[in-house]
UniProtKB/TrEMBL annotation:
Residue span, Helicase ATP-binding domain: 48-211
Pfam families found in the cross-reference section: DEAD, Helicase_C
Keywords from the UniProt entry: ATP-binding, Helicase, Hydrolase, Nucleotide-binding
Name of the protein described by the UniProt record: Helicase-related protein
PROSITE patterns named among the record's database cross-references: HELICASE_ATP_BIND_1, HELICASE_CTER
Superkingdom of origin organism: Bacteria
Source species of the chain: Phoenicibacter congonensis
Lineage: Bacteria, Bacillati, Actinomycetota, Coriobacteriia, Eggerthellales
Spans annotated as Disordered: 1-28
InterPro entries: AAA+_ATPase, DEAD/DEAH_box_helicase_dom, Helicase_ATP-bd, Helicase_C-like, P-loop_NTPase
SMART domains: AAA (SM00382), DEXDc (SM00487), HELICc (SM00490)
Length: 381
């Protein structure tokens, strides 16, 4: 069956599927350029060949490799996104919108033209768009009205190693519809620890999906461990507080003081939630002069406040973030990362029959993701 015949075929449910007309790309788009400093750029030919030769490809690598922003461009250069959209899922809304803006900027296109995004309550995708960023929940909801996802010719599932419920359902669903959509390409990105499991999951005719590994950070990152009850020997206030009385905020303040003495650069601090961010901001403002910017970063932050994070000025900055900054986002100027080792995680309570948010220690994979936020433009700590 040809690709055009497959695209015109209706799903078994009998419901009319949504068709995307073939689009005309603007003159001057090709050849597409790729940033030389990103490790994925050196692998783009290998990735392109794998996508052309296989229905499913697994791309794995550490954070900072550039796979989130460059994979859709590789697909576009292969001719994908013309007869259908290149769908690109992200676990979080802020990652979907910022990634769309970044790709649009690299393609020298207005947001919504070639590249758009769709999140809850916001659809910024134009009729001529080729690449559509969205949360995994949006794609999952679209399966209700477009069972075979015929509006897409390529689907990229990013950060699959997070193994959220939405991601797991999508991976199982895509495997089921692949035989009915031979024209559909699926690309799964993952940390190295889970790559082989995803490859086995997408075994076709007894052959696992090919895995392409991409290196991560460009510069070395030193890992320092500082227990909360350790004393900052340079701070008189820290020495006056007994170790047993110290809390997370004391540890954050001491860590920032120690890091800022090593040299210039911005710091990214990972905290469990908004409450801890407010407490840390208050504690840090007491210790640092007014010219040091202290900025929050969390999912409910307005678009205007988010823009401040991605437009650094001359002032030194301390970014206080939840795990929304753990994957896909690149905050410029970060040389130091302070990791509380905690995250607020949604868990289902069988006893109360409701979902609740619990503060829990993070996994080693999440800790590696967080450390990868630095070491991109110079060595980090």
């Amino acid at each position: 069956m040809s690709a055009s015949e497959s695209l015109s075929k209706k799903p078994r449910s009998g419901r009319q599927s949504r068709q995307v007309p073939e689009k005309k790309l603007p003159d001057g788009l090709f050849p597409i350029s790729y940033p030389d400093e990103l490790p994925v750029s050196s692998k783009r030919r290998e990735i392109a060949v794998a996508i052309a030769m296989n229905q499913v490809v697994i791309v794995c690598g550490e954070t900072g490799s550039g796979k989130t922003t460059q994979l859709p461009k590789i697909c576009l250069e292969l001719g994908r996104g013309i007869k259908g959209l290149i769908g690109h899922t992200q676990p979080r809304r802020i990652a979907a919108s910022t990634t769309a803006r970044r790709i649009a900027r690299e393609l020298d296109s207005a947001l919504g033209d070639i590249v758009g995004y769709k999140i809850r309550f916001t659809d910024h995708t134009g009729p001529n768009a080729c690449i559509k960023l969205m949360t995994d929940g949006i794609l999952l909801a679209e399966t209700q009205t477009d069972r075979l996802l015929r509006q897409y010719d390529t689907i990229i599932i990013d950060e699959a190693h997070e193994r959220s419920l939405n991601i797991d359902i999508l991976l199982g669903y895509l495997k089921q519809i692949l035989p009915e959509r031979p024209d559909l390409k699926v690309i799964v990105t993952s940390a190295t620890i889970d790559a082989e499991r995803f490859a086995e999951h997408f075994t076709i005719h007894g052959k696992p999906a090919p895995v392409i590994e991409v290196s991560g950070r460009l510069y070395p990152v030193d890992i320092w461990y500082r227990p909360i009850d350790s004393i900052n020997e340079y701070d008189e206030k820290s020495r006056s507080v007994p170790p047993q009385n110290r809390d997370l905020m004391d540890g954050i303040v001491d860590a920032i003081d120690e890091l800022f003495r090593t040299g210039f650069g911005d710091a990214l601090v990972f905290l469990p939630g908004e409450r801890e961010i407010r407490e840390a901001a208050e504690a840090l403002r007491k210790q640092h002069p007014p010219h040091v910017q202290i900025l929050p970063l969390y999912a409910r932050l307005s678009a205007q406040e988010q823009e401040k994070i991605f437009k650094p000025g001359n002032a030194r900055r301390i970014i206080l973030a939840t795990n929304v900054a753990e994957t896909s986002l690149t905050v410029p100027g970060i040389r130091f990362v302070v990791d509380s080792g905690l995250a607020r995680v949604k868990r289902y309570s069988y006893r109360n029959k409701v979902e609740r948010l619990h503060i829990e220690p993070i996994s080693q994979a999440a800790a590696n993701q967080r450390s990868g936020r630095c070491g991109r433009v110079e060595s980090g700590i």
